Amino acid sequence: MAPEETYSVGRVARLTGVSPDLLRAWERRYGAVEPVRTPGGTRRYRAEDIDRLRLLKAVVDAGSRIGDVASLSTEELERRVSPAAAVDAAPLERAIAALARLDGVEAEQLIAGQLAGLGPVRFAKEFALPLLQRIGHEWREERMCVAAEHMGSALLRSLLGSALRPTAAHRGAPVVVFATLPGERHDIGLLIAALAALGAGAQPVFLGADLPVPELVRALELTGGQAVALSAVVQPREELEAGLEELRAALPDSVEIWVGGAAADGAETPEGVRPIETLARLEQRVELLRVASGA
Hints:
Rossmann fold, five-stranded parallel beta sheet, Multidrug-efflux Transporter Regulator, Chain: A, Domain 2, about 55% helix, alpha/beta, two-stranded antiparallel ribbon, 3 domains
């Protein structure tokens, strides 16, 4: 019988989307998988380990904490990521229709109902983010007027802001400051990211848009922030790159800088600034902060 094929840490990271650092943390802290060891002590992973890691990542991406799901059976994980468990898209379509006709009462009821039903973290990731993307698409295609786009943005900002309420249980969790650099005024995506970080176990400090770099540095000093998460949506690339250079030079190396958003795609970031392409990657960084701090 041929020996069972196994895979390296790097190959598993590429196949599953779970970074090597996070994979080690999931193994060490939660026993998510148990790799085999070569005679030299190198960790190797089997096909079933890869399947399990993909399921775990999908469940975590949907809003669960790794500590809550790492011990679940593969069958239970498969059930949780099945299409039957997906959020119904009908409320989103009804909300878009209500906004398009400027029916603020119905739109607010529909959106607030999703917040109540899903809870803050799932609402941010599974409803608010797709809704925000659809609003932008409908406006660009001229199927939604500017007033409707403004109404939708205002409703989302209000509801997301009300949902972002860390409790006493979050004391001792890694502090992540959320803001935008000067010149960037879009902050709804930043609110969604802050809620995702809250669900991943961080203590988010939301400062909003258009914050001067010295004030951002001061805020990190006052809060003991271990990381700062920045959003860049429409900021000119040269302004963003200059702001990141200034911020990196002003902060100690121990404070991580994360940046995401449409304007950050393809930007040349200074050494020590980490691009964050997705909410899942943001949650991975939070989890690594938690492991490093023992939270």
